[in-house]
Every structure is written in structure tokens, then in C-alpha cells.
Amino acid sequence: MDPSFTAEQDEIRRTLRELLRKRSGPHELRAALDTPAGHDPALWAALADHLGLPGLALPEAYGGVGCPVADLALACEETGRTLAPSPLLATSVLAAPLILALGTDAQRTALLPRIAAGTLTATLAVPAPALATALALTCVNDGDWAGGGRAGGVQARRVAGTWRLYGETAQVLDGHSAGLLLVAAHSGGYVRPRTLLFLVPETSEGLVRVRQTALDATRPQGHVQLRDVEAELLGNGDEQGVPEALALLGDRAAAVLACEAVGAADRALERTVEYVGRREQFGRVIGSFQAVQHRLADVYVQLQAARSAAYYAAWATDRDERVGGLALAQALEALRTAAAEAIQLHGGIGFTWEHEAHLYFKRAAGDELLFGPAHRLRAHAADRARLFTLKEVTV
Predict the structure, then answer these.
(1) Whole-structure pTM over 0.90, yes or no?
(2) Last residue of a domain, one of 72, 102, 119
(3) Which Pfam families match (predicted)?
């Protein structure tokens, strides 16, 4: 692995950081969270028009930039620094790769150029709270996580040659505002159970969506109801390819999320260092106290370890090395620690609603609920590597 960045990667990071500094400051962030969509459409348009961010990791044949996943991960590190709410994670990290991997030529041609241009947002809708399971981050995804005939899932059936979906799912990232839903549905009943993915446009009759109150407001979530909705099957109906595609997507998404969490942790630590360098107590800045320095040094060491793991995971995504879950576990713990120390060392203002410290802590806790927790991410990685499998010893 070459730890240095290319000139193009440095330029992406620099340009994106400058744009977010101007367009996604604390006041702009609060205003975006209060909108019905939960993000600023003008900022999303700027990310698409000026940087081509939605199509950064999509092939040029479909209007994308053709960069590796590592470049998208580095871009998400910058969006993580400001906790910028946008459809980037749901659209470019979760939905677009599935369309690219499983979609037919006609589906790719119709959808991916619009996603790359930023004119179409999309998301992956799976029954809550099964997102980590569907992506094979905390366990294998060969079970009935899509519903299996039980309440809370989505069922699919063929009626007169068309697919109809019915059911509901919650905690869908941007599920209330995305222009396209990739819905994981259970089909075949009990005789031939299988999980398939379906395309559901926002204008579909019988589709009901509302925004949910989420722990982390910077990741807007929606509750989706499908009342006998007509849907288009993604791909050719090969159910065997769906779990593998989701597992591969999960590892890549984990690498991107790890870089995003590293960016958030870095900014939380940076703000804390700035604050303790000017806050005075007993006639001295509190940053001069050895106990404070030790606590921040511990955060810095944990952050740098998480950054190293996240960068390696992003680099490894194009080399068929699945280490994203481990990197995400490391990054989530670093973010939680950095955010907790930020709240503590900011003192009284760190606990207020007006300060940004609690937003970083909620990002760490919210991501653990959606994609973790850290100990399960590590446990599944250990099971996959068969670290604790007993082997017969011949004497």
C-alpha cells in the first residue's frame, strides 16, 4: 500500500473542504436539518455540479468520474468533518453500486447517468433494524432478514406479469425524500423463499413515506409503507447474486463510513484543542493542565490508529480484501471517544443544545445503531476469518 495521496485526491479533498467551509457551517447545518428533506438541495447541487461527487466512483460510461472507491471514501472524510447532511451516503455509497452490480443494461443506462449528475437520489430500503445484517457487517446475510412472511418486512408477489410489493420498513436513510427506492423484499412464500431487490420510483401509487425522528438528525431517516405498489425487479431475478452483492457492498460501505467517522472525530478533536487553548481557569488556560493534555493525547492516538485502518480499508476495496468492518469498528470507537471528550472538556457549554458537540456524539451513537455495534463488527470479522475455530490436533 502506498500511503501517499495522488495530486487528484489532494485536490478533491482541498476543494471539497473549502466548499463545505463556505456552504455547510454550523448555522447552515442547523437550517438544513429543519427542512422537510433534512438536507440543503443547493449544497447537493453544488457537490454534483462543481465536484461531480455523486458519480465519483461510477464508470465514465454512465456519466461518472471513474475514480476508485478510495477517492469517494476520502471525499466522505471531508463531509464527515462538518457532518454535512446530504444524500451522498444513501445514493452513491449504498444504492448506485447495487444498480451497477445487479441492474440490467437498460436499468443502468436509465438510472446511473441521472445519479451521477445529481438529479436523481436513491436509497436502499431494508426492514429495520436489519441494515447491518443485510450488508453482512455483523453476521451472514443468508437468513430471512427481508421479512420471511412476518410483520415488519416487505413481501413481493407476481400478479398478471407484474411485481407488487406490500409491507413497511423504517429507519431508511433518506427514505422520505429519495427519488428512487431499492426495496429488499421477500418473495416465494414458504415454499421457495428468496430475497430480491426492486426499483420503486417516488411517484409510485400506494407508496407512503414520512420522515422519522432520528437520534442523529444529520442522517435523515424515513418510514416507508408499500400498499400494493407496482415495482420493477432489479436485474434478471438471480436471487443467488443478491446476498453476495450486498455483502460486497457492505464491506465497501464500511470503508467509506470509517473514513467519514475519522473526519468527524478529527474535527471534534480539533475543536476541543482550540477551546482548551483559550479557556482560562485559575488564571491559566486549561490546555496547560497535564491531565487535559493526557486525555487529548489518548484521543489523538486512537484517532490516528482509526485513520490508518480506514485508509487501508478504502485502499483494499479494489483489491478484494474485506476489512471494512474492522476499520469501521475502530473508527466508530474513535469518534465516540473524541465526541465524549469534546463534551466533557467544553464544560457547561458542551452539554447545551446550541453547541455542536452533541451532534458528533449522536453521529457516533447513530452509526453504531445502524451499522454496528463495534463489538459485533469485530466478532463477525473474527468468525469470517475462523480465528476461534477449534481444529483437530494430531499427536
Answers:
(1) yes
(2) 119
(3) Acyl-CoA_dh_1, Acyl-CoA_dh_N
Pull the grid cell for residue 269: 478533536
**Cα–chain center distance at 277:** 33
Q: Residue 27 pLDDT > 70, yes or no?
A: yes
Convert 314-353 to b/e letters by CB count within 10 Å (16 or more is b): bbbbeeeebbbbbbbbbbbbbbbbbbbbbbebbeeebeee
C-alpha cell at 96: 448506485
Residue reference for cell 448555522: 27
Q: Is 390 contained in some domain?
A: no
Question: Which strand (E) or helix (H) includes residue 278?
Answer: none
Task: Tell me the CATH number at 188.
Answer: 2.40.110.10
Residue 393: per-residue pLDDT: 53
Are 111 and 132 in the same domain?
Answer: no
User: What is residue 392's predicted lDDT score, i.e. its pLDDT?
Assistant: 55
- Whether residue 193 is found in the same domain as residue 216: yes
Q: What's the structural domain count of the chain? A: 3
Query: 394 falls in which pLDDT band (50, 70, 90)?
Result: low
Nearest-angstrom CA–CA distance, 58 and 117: 11
Residues 201, 290 share a domain: no
